[in-house]
Design brief:
This is Proline iminopeptidase. With 507 residues, this protein is of the alpha/beta class. It has a domain at 41-135 and 175-234 and 401-479: Alpha/Beta hydrolase fold, catalytic domain (Rossmann fold). The chain has 19 helices and 13 strands.
């Protein structure tokens, strides 16, 4: 749910985880035994010292043979001690638009306990990574910094950029929906000979995990959904989650002795800054965050809000928000520049695939009522406007209405939510679980987006998988407050905190 450019409507639109065997007839079993398994070759992933095994299979692009085939690439992180060779844990990447194999180091860390006895399977969803990545030439960081979205006709700009990307890709995005992709994942499972999978999805990855469960329930042993996106929910509802997470940060600063002393009236000052930028952009010169060369920066309301929004995802960047707001009001934009540069996701996100998902699944589900509701939040309104511009140009066929029905399953399912999540709040998990009869929902009140990556939940997930969801889980460790101290100045955090404020110890 991120963007390659957080400063245009196009950018906001782009932003915007009981063993059963598949029933086979005797002829199908014979056909499977005669099937040539995909060739596996040794490979390596960034950030991992361990050797992986990589391969690919061919899948039809659509039901029409004339549309040809697509190579679906995958990587296997071998089990430490493969005592469960017929099972694997499959990791579904988020975005939508991220490559699972490129995130191998993160999946390895998040699933380190499950890997002790089972392979970790990572499949690049069609349209991402090496599976025919749908990526267009992006706007470089300097151009993003220089763009003035107050003076440009952004509707025309967004239409031109979308049409340019569509022409460049020359691909029918209808074939890259979540529904189509689910079949690829099961084809990889079958080709590799795994009889059952433990699913682990994060963010958008929870949507593909749910759709996979719906289509191939006999292939699923357990399912862990981390930062849950309900099938019933359009991503434009994210605006309220952003506002709630932002207000939680402002409230904490107000009750933290050091923060309230250094940044009095933080919330009011944030909206004061936005108001100043609403009609008049600030033009200044800053240092490029990587080359340190002087470059031009045009600071606008959209850029500031989008930058703070993305900072809410991590405790490290959340800790910088009060300083960035305060310094910007005083004319020092270096903290904002640091946060702004960290939101550039152009290289890691396949924006064509991202568009395929939101235009076939999220945009068509919008009603007059949901538009009015989601549009009350600034980011929700910007996303809807972006969808309305880009999706008619992409012309992706909407998914069937049955796609939006909650998944009905008795498969052991673990839902994880962060109390400070600016994208997928705990209420979304409650919405997703209405038809799940064998489900546990755990909330870490101090976590943001992606509970496993920032808490003790990796161990919990490992035990959940090892017991096939039958073991009673001890989740008391999720109560630990893992927030970080706010930065009090450019040199770092405060050396001393108010003893009466527990939350001032961490953020």
């Amino acid at each position: 749910m991120m963007s390659r450019s957080n400063m245009t409507k196009t950018g906001l639109f782009k932003l915007a985880a009981l063993p059963l065997m598949m029933g086979l007839s005797s002829s199908a079993i014979a056909e499977q035994e005669n099937q040539v398994k995909p060739q596996l070759t040794p490979c390596y992933a960034k950030g991992l010292d361990d050797r992986l095994l990589c391969g690919s299979i061919k899948q039809p692009v659509s039901d029409n043979p004339a549309d040809g085939e697509i190579d679906i690439h995958f990587a296997i992180i071998p089990a430490i001690k493969p005592s469960k060779p017929e099972e694997a844990v499959i990791g579904f990447a988020g975005g939508p638009g991220q490559s699972a194999t490129e995130l191998a180091a993160i999946f390895d860390r998040n699933l380190r306990y499950a890997r002790e006895s089972r392979d970790i399977l990572l499949v690049d969803q069609r349209g991402t990574g090496k599976s025919n990545k749908l990526q267009c030439e992006g706007v470089d960081l300097i151009s993003q910094f220089e763009l003035n979205d107050l003076t440009e006709d952004m509707d025309i700009f967004a239409k031109e950029e979308t049409q340019k990307c569509k022409d460049e890709l020359n691909t029918d995005l209808t074939h890259y929906s979540t529904v189509a992709a689910a079949k690829d994942f099961d084809a990889v499972r079958e080709a590799l000979g795994y009889k059952g999978l433990h699913l682990y999805g994060v963010s958008y990855g929870t949507r593909i995990a749910q759709e996979y469960t719906r289509q191939f329930p006999n292939s699923v042993i357990t399912s862990t959904l981390d930062g849950v996106v309900p099938m019933q929910q359009s991503l434009t509802a994210i605006g309220k989650a952003i506002d709630d997470s932002m207000n939680a940060l402002f409230d904490r600063c107000e009750t933290d002795a050091n923060c309230s002393e250094n940044y009095p009236n933080l919330k009011a000052n944030f909206y004061k800054l936005l108001e100043q930028l609403d009609d008049q952009a600030i033009e200044t010169t800053v240092r490029h965050p990587r080359t340190h060369k002087k470059i031009n920066l045009v600071l606008t309301k959209m850029k500031v809000f989008s930058t703070v929004r993305m900072a809410l995802y991590s405790h490290t960047t959340r800790a910088l928000v009060p300083l960035a707001i305060s310094e910007a009001l005083n004319g020092d934009y270096s903290p904002i520049v640091g946060l702004l540069s960290s939101t550039d996701m152009m290289d890691s996100m396949a924006m064509g695939m991202h568009s395929a998902i939101v235009c076939s699944e999220d945009w068509p589900s919008l009603t007059d009522a949901s538009r009015a509701d989601h549009g009350q939040a600034y980011m929700g309104r910007m996303m809807i406007e972006g969808f309305d511009i880009a999706c008619p140009i992409w012309d992706a066929k909407p998914v069937d209405k049955s796609f939006y029905e909650p998944v009905k399953t008795d498969i052991p399912t673990l839902l994880l939510s962060g109390g400070l999540d600016p994208a997928t709040p705990a209420s979304w998990a409650e919405m997703a679980m209405v038809e799940m009869s064998n489900v546990k929902h755990l909330v870490s009140e101090s976590a943001t987006h992606g509970v496993v990556s920032q808490t003790c939940a990796a161990n919990i997930v490992g035990k959940f998988i090892d017991s096939n969801g039958s073991e009673e889980l001890d989740a008391t460790c999720l109560e630990k407050d893992n927030r970080k101290q706010f930065f009090m100045n450019l040199n770092g955090v405060a050396l001393h905190t108010d003893s009466g404020s527990e939350s001032s110890e961490k953020e």
